[in-house]
């Protein structure tokens, strides 16, 4: 299994790591290296490279026994009116240029996935967005970046809202429609558990839809209550839905990166990360003990009482 985590989580509780309050990218990577079971890291572009030497970052990752899973795009406030759908052509081109740079950086660091999350492509008011125009702009920009790097995997992480009231593409089906319209073989989907809960999707069903279309690239795992992107520890709120999600991950032989997109603020991030990995492995082992065939039989029976006995088995 490949496990990765959110680099900015490792800024919390700095007193547990060193006297330094302002940790640079290498400090954060070094701290991540202490998390038991962590194999990969993902960096944000350009955020984690500003004023940092990329070669130093590269050796720091190797020195800590880690590998780069990929790069995630973080567009700054300049793009408040949209990234790939920005009405200002110069800004839209700049967003495209930054995305292409991120792919180059990913290659340099030995990663293979560029994750795209467009926090600002969306709308807050009726008549604020021309949906036809914005959709064409988005498809066109995604074709440009995916075609420029055919050897790089690009992945779209949808989120229903936050910071916009409506993200332009905010659910599993419209993401799969977008991917289909872009038409690039190197373009797929990243499923974020909290985002799916916010959208009132059933995460295992979204996983099924993405796998059915052969577009499943990455997981962002966490938990939350469904109103905001809470970034809580895996299985802390929706334990059974997490179990069902991991079951379907096994069923489709998912071998991509499992990234914990959590926001520890009071917790020791090293312990929090190790706990998420332990939780994933424990739930995964539980399914293995029952056996995939037995699980399939259980599902075929459509007997909710038998399913509840699974919970009892976990507790006992
Ligand atoms: Mn995420």
TrEMBL record:
Q: Which InterPro entries match?
A: L-rhamnose_isomerase, Xyl_isomerase-like_sf, Xyl_isomerase-like_TIM-brl
Does the record carry Transmembrane helix as a key word? no
What Pfam families is this protein classified in? Answer: AP_endonuc_2
User: One GO MF term, please?
Assistant: isomerase activity
Q: Which UniProt keywords apply?
A: Endonuclease, Hydrolase, Isomerase, Manganese, Metal-binding, Nuclease, Plasmid
Q: Which residues form the Xylose isomerase-like TIM barrel domain?
A: 37-281
List the protein's name.
AP endonuclease
């Amino acid at each position: 299994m490949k496990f990765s985590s959110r680099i900015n989580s490792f800024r919390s509780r700095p007193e547990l790591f060193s006297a330094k309050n302002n940790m640079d990218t290498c400090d954060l990577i070094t701290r991540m290296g202490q998390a038991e079971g962590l194999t990969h890291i993902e960096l944000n572009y350009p955020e984690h490279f500003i004023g940092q030497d990329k070669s130093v970052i590269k050796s720091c990752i190797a020195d800590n026994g880690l590998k780069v899973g990929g790069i995630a795009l973080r567009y700054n406030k300049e793009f408040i009116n949209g990234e790939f759908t920005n009405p200002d052509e110069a800004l839209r081109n700049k967003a495209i240029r930054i995305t292409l740079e991120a792919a180059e950086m990913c290659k340099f660091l030995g990663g293979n996935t560029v994750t795209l999350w467009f926090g600002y492509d969306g709308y807050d008011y009726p008549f604020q967005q021309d949906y036809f125009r914005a959709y064409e702009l988005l498809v066109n920009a995604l074709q440009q970046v995916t075609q420029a790097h055919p050897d790089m995997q690009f992945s779209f992480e949808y989120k229903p809202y936050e910071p916009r009231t409506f993200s332009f593409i905010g659910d599993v089906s419209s993401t799969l429609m977008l991917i289909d319209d872009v038409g690039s073989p190197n373009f797929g989907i990243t499923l974020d558990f909290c985002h799916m809960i916010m959208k009132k999707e059933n995460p295992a069903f979204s996983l099924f839809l993405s796998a059915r279309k052969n577009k499943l690239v990455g997981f962002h795992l966490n938990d939350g209550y469904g109103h905001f992107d809470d970034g809580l520890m895996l299985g802390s709120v929706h334990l059974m839905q997490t179990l069902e999600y991991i079951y379907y991950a096994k069923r489709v032989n998912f071998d991509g990166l499992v990234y914990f997109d959590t926001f520890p603020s009071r917790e020791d991030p090293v312990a929090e990360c190790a706990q998420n990995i332990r939780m994933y492995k424990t739930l995964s082992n539980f399914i293995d003990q029952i056996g995939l065939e037995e699980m399939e039989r259980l599902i075929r029976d459509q007997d909710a009482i038998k399913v509840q006995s699974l919970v009892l088995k976990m507790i006992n």
